[in-house]
Amino acid sequence: MNTPEDSALAALHSGAGVWLRGAPGSGRSHTLQAISARWPGQRLLLRAPEAWLSTLPDTVLLCIDDAPAGLDRAAFPAGRPVVVAGPRPGAGWDIIDLAALGEDDSVRLFLQHAPGARVSAPLQALARRLGGNPTALIAAAHRWPTERLDAILEDPSPGWPGLRAAYAALTAPEQDALALLSRLPGPVRRTGLVWCGRATGVDGLIAAGWVTVSRPGLCELSPALADAVRPWRPGDITPYTAWFTQAARARVRAWDDSGGSREWLRSGLWPMLWDQSPRPVAPWFFLGWSLSGEAPAALLDALEAAGGAISPLVRARCAARAHQASGDRPAAVAVLTEALAAGTGTARHRALARMELGVAHHRLRHLKAAQADYAAAVDQMEAEGLRRGKMLSLANLAAVDHDRGDHRAALAGYEAAIAEAGMLDAHRLRGIFSSNLGALLLETDALDAARAALQQAARSLSAEPDDRYLAITRVNQAAVELLEGHLEAAESCYREALGLLRDRDPSSAALCHARRGAVAALRGDLDAARQHHDRADALAPQQDPLTVRVAALWRVFLEWQAGDRASALGRRRDALGGEVPLVSTSDEARLVLRLLERHAGQPGEVLVVGPEGAWMRLPGQEQVSVARYVAVARILAHLADRAERQPGAASDADALIEAGWPGEQIVPDAARNRLAVALARLRKLGLRGLLQRTRDGWRVDPDWSVLLLRSEP
For residue 688, is it within any domain? Predict the structure, then answer.
């Protein structure tokens, strides 16, 4: 008798698309994984159809789990093997219906994953209780033999096979309260839920076993449910229960959008987390809760109202978080600096505040100050035994190296942080560090490795409700697509990032609109590009000068495509110049210029000079090699760099001789003869009409736009 896997594989080998349909608990994900494991070629797990899939070999199996309802086979390239799992298929699929495993099959599946186990009455009872759910059975088997089977049987956490159905049966207020509780660390006061308007239904949750009363007045998720719905905690059933996190995220987001954050902070925060919690407000704010909309101002109001009930250092940390969320980074620096100078607070809070001051300096691109703060935080956290905080500070030091362009040091730092996060089972932090590593790898042109690191980051971050960092990962994935010339895929990533941000982080949202403006310009849709850039300008906080400058830099593509080459190159020149060049402190600025060089390095209306003067191209002409004339190439690079940075400025003979023959001791007359020969060679190679002699020396005609590439396009 053929199994569903056999039937699916037979259909896939014939080029069909297979949809695994089944109710919750029917093992859709498990069956998809089994099919993927038996596929003879490569497999690719997707989140949604992408345009670039048509470039893959026909032997690659495309897989989507929890596919959106109504997804059609036509969304994928014809003839490619595709297998998806979901409850409601679209058109064009070979549908395989899945049923829950029978008791005998459940027992066999358990025994496959629990070597040494024997069929027994408790095992059969467990199989019945788990209702044939493959993921729940495997999760229980993974606990064997470290735990007695009867202990597993008494613990409802391995699967809760009816979890989805039970959740769906809850009332809307019960689901709201449950979603909030799943986002908070530790017990919360029921009075706070009342004041927030989210207490209705808590009694029903307690009666159903979803919530327990830890001590009078305090409630929390039951331990069994907490293990199931908090995927950042170790557990084998995350694939089965990740949907709960998504549901909680959606409900909390909807509540935030309707003013929930404001009400939570103004009326629920202090009685819930301040009065009776041994670790007051800090854990709540620094475990990823996003402040959005009116919430930052509401938090500052609540801090003011709390008065002396809050220690100055904790007050400063919370206020800095609010300032950061609203884009006022100088205010965050000021409040943390003042609190640390006062010398109050516990050593633990001082260490954390020092790291947060480093973050505020870092976002302002005060890199020396950020490095000093991070280094001090590492020492303080080591003394306090704060292993995660130390790991995060070390990763932040790597990010400073990254921003400075010290790729080797940054790579070592990120890899060490990822390894440490893996040992600590810190999935969210591992996702953040992997995203940073992906951004570093794409800057070094290791695009395949960058793509792999970013896919790992997305997997880690998708399991936890951290939309901001998942959005950053999508932005980095878009950069890979841009560098490979996949504009549609890049636009899709940027659009998803904006959806995750939902204008919660004005700086990040502004940059996303600026990037989408660049993509629209490169696609030739200049009106859409202008709209995105106008939106970026409106969102960028003026207190955040780095965001303002980088968002403006993305306009180079709109100007270039509109024919305004001079303005585009002027922006590039500004990014390269100044006392502290933007490109020396921002990896995104370096990405913009790299993309511009790739785009502008094609034939056009600009004199393009290759890296180190190795070649040049005039409008409408072929590329001319200069590399074999080493000194001439150096002089060409010098003239092009001067034309970029200071249009119209000339270089005298001494400057050109030093550029062409650096460090050589040459008799003056011989040096001038060499220079004359080199300049004659440049004219002969094509610069006769562009190379000008003035009273101050030689220059490229200032009426020409010049682009000196820093790397090959």
Answer: yes
